[in-house]
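Running log. JK asked me to keep both predictions on one page so they can be read side by side. First protein, sequence followed by its tokens:
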Amino acid sequence: MTASTASTIHYHPANGKAPPRSLALLLAALSALGPFSIDAYLPSFHDIGASLAATPLEVQQTLTAYLLPFSLMTLWHGAIADALGRRRVILAALALFALASAGCMLVTRIEALWALRALQGVTAGAGIVVSRAIVRDLYDGAQAQRLMSRITMMFALAPAVAPVIGGWLEAWLGWRSIFGFLVVMTVLLGAVCWHLLPETLPPERRQSLRPRYLWQSYRSVLSAPPFLAACFAISLNFLGFFVYVLSAPVFVMRHLQLPETAFLWLFGPAMAGLMGGSWLSGRLAGRLAPTATVRLAYAVMSVAALSNLVLCLSLPPGVPWSVAPIFVYTFGMSLAMPILTLVALDPYPEKRGLAASCQTFLQSGCNAFAASIIAPALWGTTLSLAFGMGGLMLLGGAAAWLHWRLNRAAR
């Protein structure tokens, strides 16, 4: 497919055209760019602080500088994609992300790194938001769940390999090489999208960017209790694991006493669980009711959270017992994630991009809050992290229960 045809061909089951077999892989790569840019430089926190004469807290705030703009801008990626088309938004975001990554590689002050990480955050969310909209452009029901599960399964590889790649680049070439790697990776991804990414939103289905329309649309989505409950269920479930990602330098290097090249001990089991749960979710699509699958997912997460507490109380931090519950937890989390993601978007067929933006905005806002408040409060001990996992999972379960109760009440 050439660049010219990619921009005009529209794939949809209703018109008999099947999406390319490579589409799931491409959407997974786009979704993974944001998480990869978080995890890849975690092993370099100490080196960045020494190089830029910054305190550990100042280096930690490069995460917040990334996550807050990421959260705010995700509120707009979908609306812009609803108006201009999916492909155009993706290509522009990739170009700006590559420029921001090149700037990060060249900074000499921590303040400049904050600013350029913020620009990365502004652009990185486009892949996640627009990819979700593309899935719902193409499929409904069990088919959408299967495609979302495949994307999640492949997407899981990025957080697993990112800190490993970052750790080795740090050891061989220093922290600046990590951002150089991001530049190369983004340019290559942009070239692939230019040639292969289809446009799934025809011009006749595009929406307005008029302020009044946007205000009414955002208000209707963000004031819908079932939508909010589903989004918070996804976010809180994810935070039960994400606090370990945000605490990775402390958890891996201080608590587990492993070197900066050993982050695979955390991310390997976690992403194996995420891939396994996503695979099973796809296999169960159309065979098991979505509510039953979600109940099974919470049962798995409950076992993980309880065993994590027991192990922390019984044994000193170490491998593999300190990371085994994380594998089980991410398995359960990813079993529920495709379903919860889709049920939040289902009521908005005419403004899927905008609804996906609102969904990602709420999730990334929770992630930013966790980066600045929750993770620093929990990373002092492995036991406090285990309590955090359990408490966040319980809150997520309550939100999922509330979503289905509100849906039943509305019928």
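And the second, directly underneath as requested:
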Amino acid sequence: MSAAADRPRVALTMGDVAGIGPEVIARAWSDPVLHRLCAPLVIGDPGVMRRAIALVGATAEVATISDPGEAEPHAERIPCLTPPALLKAGTLADVLAGRVDRRAGFAAHEFLNLAIDDALGGRIDAIVTLPLNKESLRLAGVRHPGHTEILAERCGVKEHAMMLFLASSKGEENGEQHTRGRPGLGVVHVTLHVALRQVFDLLTTDAVAEKIRLADRAMRPLTRGQAPRVAASSLNPHAGENGLFGDEEIRIIAPAVKRTRGEGIDVHGPFPNDTLYPKALAGAYDAVVAMYHDQGHIALKTAGFRRAVNVTLGLPIIRTSVAHGTAFDIAWKGLADPSSLIEAVRVAARLAAARYPTGSPP
């Protein structure tokens, strides 16, 4: 790891400055758990960061840096790295809270790109992203709908997926979760940010098998090398009832399960979703492969919205994210909750420990 002592160096990208991202960082910074888990730095706008610190009534000083190696973070000092393009473009001070703004979309894109480049260059150990706004991105000329697609393109990978991970609340000791027993439940999505009508065209046996493999690889660091138990969701009600309500389970999903079981993965299904998720959340499985976005998100966010974390799979770098959005309705009102950010950092630290076993984080 690049950070001092036994903590990974983790970059927190500010996200859309019109949303709650800056406030979430400001609130999390005063939490000692954040600093036990990692050596954090912020990639964002220092002026916006100072406004967020004032909003939450904190006293931390924002220090501008030009390289992650200059970061010397502690509870009273926030190292902030700003992308060169934003240094030239000027301030974001007049971006209005809770409003779609091209400048905010451009800035969020630049924050992320700089973090990716620093991670690829080994200057940071992991990225934890705060939310961006897809409409602001589009106004800024960014063709990708969100973080996952930007990360995949800049990292040059084709096989990737988003996993929503909910850590188990069992086995807590000294404030650290999932040290014993089951670590939690991960949900990997075969299709993600597409219209529901497109799911049927994008769902193939190869695509499902790929996501089963990604789920297996993603969960191994969290199950401490043991073979994860993976379940495949159905697409249709009651898993199609043997073709009565659709035959995608027979033609597409079941063959993918059979293929990957033959490769040694402990995968089962497809199962009806109304019975699968209660069992999975109770501990029957370590990961579920969902066929589309809401199928997995609704279940996990209902079970534990503040503890849910996004993880991008298939990348050469580590990236986790909060599971909430920009929350424009409460932005800059002093109401944001940093719980999801702390959990995202916790998962990033665990993944960094598995990838860089010397100097493992707590």
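Observation for JK regarding the second prediction: The chain has 13 helices and twelve strands.
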